[in-house]
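ok so for the tutorial part 2 we go from a plain amino acid sequence to predicted structure tokens. step 1 is just haveing the sequence, like this:
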Amino acid sequence: MFPVLLVTGPRQVGKTTLLQKLMEDDRKYVTLDDPDVRYLAKRDPALFMQRYTPPVLIDEIQYATELLPYIKMSADRSGRKGDFWLTGSQVFRLMKNVSESLAGRVGIVNLLGLSDAEIYGYESTPYTTDAARLMKRAAGMKERGLNEIYARIFKGSMPALYAGDTDWEVYYRSYVETYLQRDIRDLSQVADEMQFYNFMTITAAHTSKPVVYEEFAGAAGISAPTAKKWLSLLVSSHIIALVQPYSNNILKRAVKMPLMHFLDTGLAAYLLKWGSPEVLERGIMSGVFFESYVFSEIYKSYLNAGKEPPVYYYRDKDQKEIDILLYQNGTIFPIEIKKAASPGKSSIKNFSVLAPLDNPERFGGMRELKTAIGQGNVICMSKNLLPIDEKNWYVPAWLV
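step 2 — the prediction. this is what the tokens look like for a chain of 400 residues:
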């Protein structure tokens, strides 16, 4: 569809491996991790393009963004689709150059760590709360209990941890060192690697919580603007996701701050020095890790289908909160996440705050602002998919 394909995502999630498996025999491969190749690309991009003619896969394109105007010219001359396949990890350095140089010519695919569907061999489809879809999906899946779920949460999503006998602690230590030394060190706005490491740890401790920049800044010993800038780096490198609050003129008491989730719970567990799945499951952060795990599975289900995740959350000044709102086709689908096996009907009590959206005239709003409220889910440790009432269902976490 596009002359250029760019696959972005965190380090070591398999971007290059995926594209190499899809490569045709005549497609060349070159990595800008090689210092000599990188030097040529930066010093003489025109000569580089003569050496590596399309179709070509260029790995770690962020190391030589000087190539992008030449890729644009080549793509415009040939008019062929898929001439250039690119990968990039340092999205914070890359995307501005891509948007300026390759506007309208590049298809961007965001690749995160492995989803449950990929790990356990199930079909991957964008998550919806529809009970009929969930029942059909449950028929082909194996139930997983609390211990299995937390083993998965603790292990994380990195492909290398599922490919062989890789030591978990050694792997994540190396991963963090690589991220700090190869990505963060290159950024002028981060002067102290250890201070940024401390900030990452503080961020992991705030997973599944609203973002208050002053709190992050005070805990890390930095200014609030610096905290905001550093959080944006973690977002850009797909370490965390910021979930925006659902905004509607009818819900006047809704807060404006985003909610933050660590996307790889294994990395968060490493940063916070949790020693085992059992200790994590019994620990004080057990619930928030469960929430971030469920969120990341829903989030990845959309990215893996090439779609923008339609995810929001709700929180108001009375501390009423709904963990996830899926907004699609003019309809809001509320999702609550609870670690309990039998959360009870109180788990959907906050869904009632959405009533003004469904009936704005009754609450002093205009009919034109009406938003339908769809089927809701409570994703929990229930063994079975069960109805709560005529509109809401308990959904086992293994079914997400």
